[in-house]
Design goal:
The protein is α/β, with parallel strands linked by helices. It has ten helices and twelve strands. The strands form three sheets. Strands 1, 3, 4, 8, 9, 10, 11 and 12 form an eight-stranded mixed sheet that branches. Strands 2-5 form a two-stranded antiparallel ribbon. This is Peroxide stress protein YaaA.
Length: 271
Amino acid sequence: MLILLPPSEGKSAPRLGKPLELADLSFPVLTRPRSMVIDALVDLCSVDIDPTLPMHSRVLVDLAARTLGISDGQRDLVQLNGRLHTSPSARADKVYTGVLYDALDPATLSTSAKRRAATRLAVTSSLFGLVRPSDRIPAYRLSGDANLPGLGSVAAVWREYLGDAIHLGMGDGLLVDLRSTMYAAFWRPPSSLADRVATVRVLHEVDGKRQVVSHFNKSTKGRIVRDLLEDGGNPRTPGKLADLLTDLGWKVELGEPTKKGTQLDVIVTDV
């Protein structure tokens, strides 16, 4: 089973650790596109944000910030990206933060669940394509809808390369796709895999009415992943996954199979 997670916009920047080594990352089939995206981002962001510097430098900072959708109060993220080759790295499951990762709480998983996380989880990344929880990466800021000078759409780059890595990661097992819409655009499952693809939607139900709420969605997905890792079950079909989640106490409604996979709706009334 391969569980695809979205990244977090916020990241915890490591203070200590060796610099990034692309050759050490999982999914080596992605080394070339990783290098392409990193080099384009570093080239864009290798400017000093010191306000006392000449106007030309400040214009370059403004250009980088606008390109990346970085606000005036976050200009230090431009500098962070510019140091990607030399910044300290740490485990991906310590770098990614936010609601989903708080709910998953990787550090407090049991020993057996941590072993499963190492082989069953992969985070979709605009910078690295896919990373395992134990892969050592630096903090960065690059949205999935970014366009980089000289490279173009980040999503388009990953659409060309990500399929091979995902196929290798899922093997003959089930793909549980928990990516957000933005990162789902990096790769769409072909119809040949449809019977082994399960997507999960979280619906918040209040007074009989259901809606998607971002906070509930992220937190619930984190708790679902935690439950799956702790349980250790390895369902092979979307239907078996629905059965397992039901056994674990979740309210699940199984959709009809489609050419892209089968959607599971998880219904929650509180977070």
